[in-house]
Design goal:
about 260 residues, alpha/beta, 2-enoyl-CoA Hydratase, Chain A, domain 1, Lyase 2-enoyl-coa Hydratase, Chain  A, domain 2, 2 domains, six-stranded mixed sheet, four-stranded mixed sheet, 10 strands, about 15% strand, binds octanoyl-coenzyme A, Enoyl-CoA_hyd/isom_CS
């Protein structure tokens, strides 16, 4: 089925989603959310996809929820429709997701990037939670994920003032893993996604699950979880192959990829 707000393609083992509402700086409306979930459903179900890459345009990853669509909502509608909850499905995906962010990642756009597993930023990227200027606050995890990632002081400042931070500040504060010259962003992001997709898929998925556990539980519980999953990996053919390939000084040929 065709997409109205996205470009969706598979490049090798990478599932690529490009947000495509240039007239609205990729503002996230309900059609886009539904289409993004549909695209991600497809990639999750496709054994040929080992990693997903989400990107926007050079000017905007996404300038937030669609304010024009949202402005007329009232409380009973938001409550009855459970407005925004569908967004969270992005964070519940099991395959690794890389976000390649150029330009604005604001409000829901910043929140969408934070639902991904790795954020790579172009040097022109700008991140912020400006909802307070609209008379609301972040509603798709911004007050929670941003605080855990950058700490209370910076999260509080960004959410209370609506100030944007540039790519360098975002890297310094741990929001993005790397800053890349804008012209090279997509090539670098594809390289990262291809590298992840070349690994054993179940091992990559278990690794993602284990890192995410660090956000959900105590250190002792997280370590216990990691140990159990690590032990289970010795039941896979890919562990045998990965270690044997190292010993034989050759590239690993993982079964599950
Ligand atoms: N919603 C709808 N339309 C938008 C949005 C948006 N968030 N952002 C930009 N646009 C539209 C503009 O209205 C304009 O359309 P038109 O040409 O028809 O007037 C077009 O995109 C281009 O925008 P600008 O002319 O404003 O471009 P500038 O380069 O001058 O400015 C900015 C770029 C600074 C990014 C500016 O557009 C801006 O401030 N945008 C709004 C940013 C914002 O407040 N984002 C937060 C939105 S609220 C939110 O995300 C709540 C999260 C709750 C979770 C929901 C999950 C989806």
């Amino acid at each position: 089925m065709a997409y109205e707000t996205l470009l969706v393609e598979t490049r090798g083992r990478v599932g690529l989603v490009t947000l495509n509402r240039p007239q609205a700086l990729n503002a996230l409306n309900s059609t886009l959310v539904a289409e993004l979930n549909r695209a991600l459903d497809g990639f999750e179900a496709d054994p040929g996809v080992g990693c997903v890459l989400i990107t926007g345009s050079e000017k905007a990853f996404a300038a937030g929820a669609d304010i024009k669509e949202m402005s007329g909502l009232n409380f009973p509608q938001t409550y009855l429709d459970d407005f925004i909850t569908a967004w969270d499905r992005v964070s519940q995906r099991r395959k690794p997701i890389v976000a390649a962010v150029a330009g604005f990642a604001l409000g829901g756009g910043c929140e969408l990037a934070m639902m991904c597993d790795i954020i790579l930023a172009a040097d022109n990227a700008r991140f912020g939670q400006p909802e307070i200027k609209l008379g609301v606050m972040p509603g798709a995890g911004g007050t929670q994920r941003l605080t855990r990632i950058v700490g209370k002081a910076k999260a509080m400042e960004l959410c209370l003032t609506g100030r944007m931070m540039d790519a360098q500040e975002a890297e310094r504060s741990g929001l993005v893993s790397r800053v890349i010259p804008a012209a090279e962003l997509m090539a670098e992001a594809m390289k990262t996604a291809e590298t992840i997709a070349s690994m054993s898929l179940p091992i990559a998925m278990m690794t993602k699950e284990s890192v995410n556990r660090a956000y959900e539980t105590t250190l002792a519980e997280g370590i216990r979880f990691e140990r159990r999953v690590f032990h289970a990996m010795f039941a896979t053919a890919d562990q045998k192959e990965g270690m044997q390939a190292f010993v034989e000084k050759r590239p690993a040929g993982f079964q599950n990829r």
